[in-house]
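RECORD TYPE: inverse folding
INPUT: structure tokens
STRUCTURE:
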């Protein structure tokens, strides 16, 4: 039997790669139109809002805006600890993430992370979070909570301050541990 090009298995891989590329391009295009602008920080009874720009500035420089400073002081949060959790990066191959997040284990992890970072209504958390995580990874094969917040495909994102460290731990498990189990496409 003569070889006529790609095997079915190779064609399947090529098709998957094309599909993932199309998803990433779509996410990049749609995310430029809708991206989180406001973050509602939930901590007990407190629910102050800050702009994503304020939170990004804090994550980049450590400079705390007046409204963010008020929130951190009222809730007894250490700014350095919060900043560290926001900027801590997890290696995450976007192709692997796409595979992981589209199966029951990934959906379970999305639901867990979604308890800390989610939509104001609580609806479509899984889809929005999946989009934000894959988009974040597509930029540099790394994901951080601040990137997820920046790439969240709604104008407002709710962040539970009490569960922020838990969200990072779930993200770490998703990015680091599951990539060891699944083969990384070449």
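DESIGNED SEQUENCE:
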């Amino acid at each position: 039997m003569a070889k006529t090009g790609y095997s079915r298995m190779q064609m399947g891989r090529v098709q998957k790669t094309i599909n993932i590329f199309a998803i990433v391009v779509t996410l990049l295009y749609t995310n430029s139109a809708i991206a989180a602008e406001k973050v509602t920080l939930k901590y007990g009874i407190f629910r102050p809002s800050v702009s994503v720009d304020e939170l990004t500035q804090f994550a980049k420089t450590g400079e705390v805006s007046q409204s963010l400073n008020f929130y951190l002081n009222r809730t007894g949060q250490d700014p350095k600890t919060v900043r560290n959790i926001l900027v801590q990066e997890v290696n995450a191959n976007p192709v692997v993430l796409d595979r992981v997040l589209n199966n029951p284990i990934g959906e379970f992890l999305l639901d867990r992370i979604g308890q800390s970072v989610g939509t104001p209504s609580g609806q479509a958390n899984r889809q929005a979070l999946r989009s934000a995580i894959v988009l974040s990874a597509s930029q540099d094969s790394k994901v951080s909570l601040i990137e997820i917040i920046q790439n969240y495909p709604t104008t407002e994102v709710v962040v539970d301050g009490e569960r922020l460290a838990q969200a990072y731990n779930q993200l770490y498990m998703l990015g680091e541990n599951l990539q060891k189990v699944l083969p990384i496409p070449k």
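NOTES: The longest strand covers residues 38-42.
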